[in-house]
Amino acid sequence: MDYVVRAVRAGEWRRAREIRLVALRDPAAPIAFLETYEQALTKPDVFWQERTAGAAAGDHSRQFIAEASEGQWAGTVTVLVERPAGEPGFGEAAEVDQAHLVGVFVRPGHRGRGVVDALFREAIDWSWSVAGPPLRRVRLYVHERNGRAAASYRRIGFVPTGRTLPMEGDPAALELEFEIRR
Asked: Which part of the chain is the N-acetyltransferase domain (predicted)?
């Protein structure tokens, strides 16, 4: 695999914005992300600067990217740290100290080359190294109709927990929770 997987740097906000916009134009975006391309386009530069700086600092979140040999960002994943005493995350307050993977995306031309596996290895390793009470699990949600993503997550070692949430904007559809325990 000719990719370098690393944490995003604060000054790379333009590249972070670009890959997010590409992700939001992907055919799977309506069931994979909770915002639209049009919504993301309206956000000012300062939003992207602050978001990227926060994801680079790594106190409560960290964004990882897979950079191809020619410099293009081939994929990304963001880790959010969730603590029982913290703000409720996606769906509900955390019952245990945990990480939550969000914003998973690999450009179509780089799929099937191990990019998502490498991103997840880095994200999970970082999760286990977070300071403070040890994180007990890493979770993510996947839309019930996103079979390609669910198959990738299972291959990596995630297992369904049986928890579900209604899809934001489409309460008849479900988001399925998957996890890896420490």
From this structure: 17-181
Question: In terms of residue numbers, what domain contains 76?
Answer: 3-181
What is the total count of domains within the chain?
1
DSSP assignment letter at 4: E
Q: Cα(109)–Cα(80) distance, rounded to whole angstroms?
A: 27
What percent of the chain clears pLDDT 90, i.e. is strictly above it?
A: 82
Dihedral of alpha carbons 14, 16, 21, 26, sign? positive
Query: Per-residue pLDDT averaged across 34-40, rounded?
Result: 94
- 7/47 Cα distance (integer angstroms): 19
- Name, in order, each residue with C-beta under 8 angstroms of 30's C-beta and a sequence gap of 6 or more: 36
Cβ distance 34 to 149 under 8 Å? no
CATH number of the domain residue 95 falls in: 3.40.630.30
Q: How far, in Å, CA of 11 to CA of 119, rounded?
A: 20
